Amino acid sequence: MIIKTATFVKSSGKWQECPEPNIPEYAFIGRSNVGKSSLINAMMNHKDLAKTSQTPGKTQLINHFMVNETWYLTDLPGYGYAKVSKVQRKDFEKLITNYILNRRNLVNLFVLVDVRHKPQAIDLDFMQWCGESGVPFSIVFTKADKLKPNAVIKNVEDYKLELHKTWEDLPELYITSAEKKEGGDAILDFIQTTNDFLIQNNVSFDE
Question: Is Cell cycle tagged as a keyword (predicted)?
Fold first, then answer.
């Protein structure tokens, strides 16, 4: 997929305030400081489309971007650790949960995982919840440039072994590096293929 246009649409504090759900939507989520904004910017070939920060938990709203005038890319608040109060954290969790379960045009959720770390319970629990809730998702390993290739492969295999304890079939897996702009094209190809399928089958998101 060639990115011709990528523009910010709006930030929403409630899922009901999100843009009209009339075109395919792909959301990105992960633990705070997983490199989500950097990956989005690399994929969109836009230096500061999504706001990056050294402070975990910076994204606190649902941010929508229109890509090629045909689909939405959604930047969701991070889950897990963030320098916010427990009340705020619960509000974030409620915001994320309600969005994922109620956004009818959400085609796929990309769950970002830092490939440098061993499988984390918080990521595994979130994926388990997605599976039990019937939410289509893919796993995106980030920051592959921070490790040697063999270490990346080993950590991904460790993740697969852990997932196979509860999953018979694994979701799509992507290995990415925002720094080297690697892996993003594969994600965009998946989105393009999925959008083409939706068009060919006259899929409508209208109620």
Answer: yes
